[in-house]
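Final report, closing paragraph on structural work. Over the funding period we assembled a curated collection of sequence-structure pairs, and we close with a single example.
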Amino acid sequence: MGIDGSLMVVHGFSSARESFLILIDPALGRKASTWNEAFIRLHGMLFARLQLDSFDDEVDSFLDCWDPSSVTSTQWAITTVTNISALYQYNRKDSRLKEALRQGRREKRETEHEESAPVEETTEADSILPPSQLQNDLQVDMANTERAPDQFANMPVGIRSDDREDVSLSKIVFEKAAFLGFTLLSETLNSGTTQDGPLISIHIWLVFLAYALRYQPVVRLLERKLLWQELAELLNDVKSIVDAEWDEILAINELDGPVLLEDPIIRGFDWSRKLFPRRWFQDIDPIEPIEETEESTEARKERILSLGIQLTRVASPLNCSDNRSVIVLNLRMTYSECLMH
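Its predicted structure, as stored:
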């Protein structure tokens, strides 16, 4: 069974809220028996900001159910995208990541005097997660908002319209979201390089990080949480099995090669909107699944290496605030060893 597509919050936060609340209400009221159910329950807790005292224990329960061998490539992509959306706190007004991005954009404009550049301020209407084109494949039975009960069984009455700014609660929810996202990322980074699923997830994470870490407020927000050493080791492992020469990897300025399975899934995000060239998807049928091939597997590894290089450039150790800069430096030095081989 696929992960329910309603976890992928679409354009217009308010329009998706009711349907998602219908989905998560029963999940909050029962114990999960599969990793899919546990995953929905965890995001329900973050989305509704309920039962957070038991969140860490619920993550442990999720990991007990987590079986990477049973996860499809599409599910790897959607779980990753959903965990990133949790870092955005589902586009709430008091999202810490959104505020860090806004501050970073302001600082960048002030420093570089890019008066001609368009302002990238995020608004409520911006897409944190684009509409999913995979609902048929995932056999999603999206809840009909017309069937919404007058009162939810496991959530307070005001939950429908509750988007109040609560900075102290927002900090707690962000920490929980980061704990979930980076705990699963750690599991993924230690899954090896032989399976497509984990590499799909790592590719998506690197697209997000290469974008977000261009802004120093985001670096300060995430630097203590990121798995620099594990990421460096993964990049080295990927390089050891890639056929392409380093000159080819370093020369990548624009995407080339096949459209990957995860490309349509991450299309349209704030953090991926500049990734794809024009007409990248012109020959892709949104109804037909993209098949994995040896060519696509190799192209994904090359993209991971190219994004790893970008990451070493944007996450400068000179700009980090504490001893985590040593770990960032370790990422740069470890990965640089590959560049010389």
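The chain has one domain: 5-339. Residues 3 and 36 are 6 Å apart (CA to CA). We thank the funder for supporting this effort.
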